[in-house]
Amino acid sequence: MWKKWKESCPELNKQDWCLHPDLYLSRTELAFNFMSKPLGHKSYGSIPHLPGSRLGKGDHHCPEGQARIATEQPRDAKDLIIVQEKLDGSNVGIAKQDGEIIPLVRSGHHASTSPYEQHHHFAKWVKTQQKTFDALLLEGERLCGEWLLQAHGTRYDLEGREPFVAFDLLYNRHERVIFEEFQARVSAVNIPIVPTLSYGKQSMSIEQAMHLLAESRYGAIDPVEGAIWRVEREGKVDFLVKYVRPDKIDGCYLPEVTGSGQTIWNWQQ
User: Fold this and answer.
1) 125-163 pLDDT per residue, tens
2) pLDDT in tens, 223-235
3) How many CB atoms lie within 10 A of CB 139?
């Protein structure tokens, strides 16, 4: 697969492609005749970084005002701030379109067309959970989450835990369902949700969040990657921001990066 992408876009760096293939899709998919996206767009976008957060390829910082609201002081009592552990896996989604349950990778392509084995396992897993997702999702919605089957930059002990952990329920392309509804609906069908550190009217500093994450709440063996801040206001999701440890190395356990040819699986069926 890599060779075909390289032929269509010779300036590609293999390590960048392995870690962030979605960044190159727009430049190569026509030449490569890659399968079209079932929804016609990405499954999930990018979340801007707080000051001091380690930026990856294509990442950007959030506006200063958003950083202040999330980590220092809310605007007023109308701000609701949710802080959660940031998990380190593959961003995936499950969509319901024309009554069909569709497994997606972050770029919006069908998981079964991915060049990565972990996504084929995800597609098969979704198929076994079709009744659950059909009951959860309304037409046009999609559930997004972290697929932790394979170790990327963090290893996990998933004994007694599921490999898929939900973090967002989307509709109208990229509109988010508010956290209270998301939590109630997803919990009702027994799908795990990314661990929550704080829920309320108070901001939380990066230092506070990382102190609370000295030990992962979802089985991370290595240091926790970071945290996500979700700010809602007057019944709508206003914005999301994130923090990633400056010393975090993306994909340090991926065989494409290590060159070992060995895959580390976090979860065994």
Assistant:
1) 999 999 999 999 999 999 999 999 999 999 999 999 999
2) 999 999 999 999 9
3) 9
- Cα separation values, 128 from 83, 96, 147, 175, 184, Å: 31, 15, 15, 27, 22
**Coil, strand or helix at 244:** strand
Task: With H, G, I as helix, E, B as strand and everything else as coil, classify residue 143.
Answer: strand
The pair of structure tokens assigned to 77 is: 């009592």
The residue extents of the domains of the chain are 1-34, 38-258
Half-sphere exposure of 74 (CA within 13 A, CB side): 20
CA distances from 218 to 10, 58, 76, 84, 169 (A): 40, 27, 32, 11, 20
Question: What is this structure's pTM?
Answer: 0.87
93 touches 43 (CB < 8 A): yes
Helices (H), the chain: 2-8, 14-19, 25-32, 64-71, 117-128, 130-136, 179-188, 206-212, 255-258
Q: Are the C-beta atoms of residues 119 and 105 closer than 8 Å to each other?
A: yes
The CATH classification of domain 38-258, taken from the options 3.40.50.10210, 3.40.50.10540, 3.40.1080.10, 3.30.470.30:
3.30.470.30
CB-based burial label for 252 (10 Å; 0-12, 13-18, 19+): middle
What one-letter code names the amino acid at 110?
H
